[in-house]
Amino acid sequence: MGFGGPHAAFFATKDEYKRSLPGRIIGVSVDSNNNYALRMALQTREQHIRRDKATSNICTAQALLAIMAGFYAAYHGPKGLKLIAERTHGLTITLAQSLLKIGYNVINKAYFDTIQIDLGDLSNAIHKDCLDNNINLNYNEKIVGISLDETTTFEDVKTLIRIFSKVKAIAADNLTIIEATKSTIPPHLNRQSNYLTHPVFNSHHSEHEMLRYIKSLEAKDLSLCHSMIALGSCTMKLNATTEMIPVTWPEFGKLHPFAPADQVLGYYTIF
């Protein structure tokens, strides 16, 4: 889960290596009604390929993350994702401009959600105060990286600004928090094409709509609720419901892959 990164795994390769890819390859075909359809084009499962060449097990752990990422995109849709991105970028601009105002050097002038700050000799002091406030940053000698995302609040940004100000002995009453104005992303990098145009990403934007859509997909599946499971369908379905509950626990889902070792001792014990 989160300790490996809160995302599905995607990769690209040359055509000549396609038979070494893990998992299954979906290709475009034409059905009996001459409509375009997506179908299984290549499988590297043990049932369908020489066992010594099978690579299907590599991707098993990524399936759930891919499903969650897909539903996240479907629920928010292109408009929702854009709003999330704009809010995150706005908070990052607010943080960067406020730190510049109190005398810090923001190294990268163009950014979306991550900035790098030259701390000089203040790194240890910043590190200590951040830990006291339950904040982890990415430290690299005298440079610190700060990444924001959709879970970041304006209060989080203000806390960071207060910490960085305190180290420079700037009183809280004298703090200036600069609201985000113009984007720092160069215009030539702005996307012009449409994205997530399929109806599935533009139809299910309420809790009930998403619930019914997920239920409709479930109804198409064959599980232990209906019968014994055919060979090749057993990977996830034989997990008991209680075994899947920890997916919702913050100790698994909210753990950052770069978290300090002393904060993940329980995870290390399990795995």
Automatic annotation (TrEMBL):
Catalytic activity: N(6)-[(R)-lipoyl]-L-lysyl-[glycine-cleavage complex H protein] + glycine + H(+) = N(6)-[(R)-S(8)-aminomethyldihydrolipoyl]-L-lysyl-[glycine-cleavage complex H protein] + CO2
GO molecular function: glycine binding; glycine dehydrogenase (decarboxylating) activity; pyridoxal phosphate binding
Listed InterPro entries: GDC-P_N, GDC_P, PyrdxlP-dep_Trfase, PyrdxlP-dep_Trfase_major, PyrdxlP-dep_Trfase_small
Name of the protein described by the UniProt record: glycine dehydrogenase (aminomethyl-transferring)
Keywords: Oxidoreductase
Pfam families hit by this protein: GDC-P (PF02347)
Glycine cleavage system P-protein N-terminal domain mapped to chain residues: 1-164
Superkingdom classification of source: Eukaryota
UniProt cross-references to PANTHER family, sorted A to Z: GLYCINE DEHYDROGENASE (DECARBOXYLATING), MITOCHONDRIAL, GLYCINE DEHYDROGENASE, DECARBOXYLATING
EC number, UniProt record: 1.4.4.2
Cross-referenced SUPFAM superfamilies: PLP-dependent transferases
GO-annotated cellular components: cytosol; glycine cleavage complex
